[in-house]
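User: Round two. Same drill as before: sequence, then structure, for each protein.

Assistant: Same drill it is. First protein:
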Amino acid sequence: MISAASQTLARLLAQGLAQISQEQISFEHPQLWRRDEPGLNLYCYHVQHTERLSRSDCRWFDLTFLVGVTHYTRLGEQSLFSEVLSVLSHDQQLPDAIVDHTLRGYGALQMRVFTQAPAENVVFWTVLRAPLQLALHVTLTVPQPLANQSVPVPKGLTLSQNM
């Protein structure tokens, strides 16, 4: 579920940004992220069960990602960050068409974008042991099928019998 959510967020950003491809998106810890070329970093740092959505066939979790940008210059970073903010602020729900196939069939996934207060931000980056940088926090609410339940297969996809 976490990797599927990461890929969904990466796909959304790569499709919405002219200057970034999916190959330029990293999922590394911010301290380990290579920053020598333009790119994005999507780091999942918080997972929390949520009771907001109830279905008997799955549990729902809020996954929070730190979204950071890098570019050759600070002005380039600010420009890319503005584009990222624009793409992520466009919709509060992700339709099935954009989400990873393992997350389809549960309806549109909820997405929330937020920032932290400056004092909280300093503590956050200190705990990560990474330099303070311009970043967003994005929370996706995603399903996790229960162990005894099968994952719905989206229309058009077939499962191989060799699996």
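Second protein:
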Amino acid sequence: MNKQTVMYKPIGIVGGVLAGAIAGAAFKQVWRVASGSREAPHATDRTKGMAEILVAAAVQGAIFGLVKAAVDRGGAHAVKSLTGRWPD
């Protein structure tokens, strides 16, 4: 394991937590605007249809993936700025 990878590990961990928080907040806003509902349905909510639950899960996953990739990429750029090399 090289120095850049060792430096990136804590950045990646903190970035993952940060990405989760940002993605959760973004999803709540997107769901509120898209559906008019304050809360997204839970998979076990018997009052919601399967289509609504699956759409909510897909949107949540897409938002999380997008935010996580952006945060990970930013962390890798930060390590490169500090060390001059991209983390493996």
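The first helix runs from residue 3 to 35.

User: Perfect.
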